[in-house]
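## tool: complex_structure
## caller: assistant
## args:
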Amino acid sequence: DQQVKQNSPSLSVQEGRISILNCDYTNSMFDYFLWYKKYPAEGPTFLISISSIKDKNEDGRFTVFLNKSAKHLSLHIVPSQPGDSAVYFCAASAPGAGSYQLTFGKGTKLSVIP
Amino acid sequence: DTGVSQDPRHKITKRGQNVTFRCDPISEHNRLYWYRQTLGQGPEFLTYFQNEAQLEKSRLLSDRFSAERPKGSFSTLEIQRTEQGDSAMYLCASNSGTGGYNGQFFGPGTRLTVL
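## result:
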């Protein structure tokens, strides 16, 4: 059972436009959500996170929105740049044993076209 | 560079052989995680250390897998009697736990190919 779902395997966006990456989750115990970016042959790089007590968090060009009732979050990148081309993973964490282990989605490959 | 480092970056082995991977976390981080990523999937949690204590293990971690973190610094992940299904990217991550939550910082991974 996949607790974190990214239903779009890929997304193409024109440079300068907005990129919207979506993520759904099923486990209502998740209380922290994160987005990671991954280039080939590198480990995931932490981008931005949001606590379940908030509905929006912004960091520069990146904004994450959380809709708890819909169990849905999204990452907005504005404006999109060619260097943003990468695989983006949504991840979630639930309290339990204090480990804060992450549960990841399968990722969405973003291509920003110059 | 003060990020998480992993060694080796690539490992090719024959089925049935044992392999060992090393992870050096960010020096002040007391929490260390191992994940496994296969093609087309996101990383999957394997195990977690707080300092030298292994506090959590996933059911993915069969008895052929063992992880250690002596002295609470670097960690090793050993796979005995490797199988072709063990082929994956093995990722290590670390962070510090002082209450609440902060992001985990990942290393570049070790890509294992079992022939």
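## assistant note: The two ends of chain B are 33 Å apart (CA to CA). Chain B has a mean pLDDT of 92. Handing back to user.
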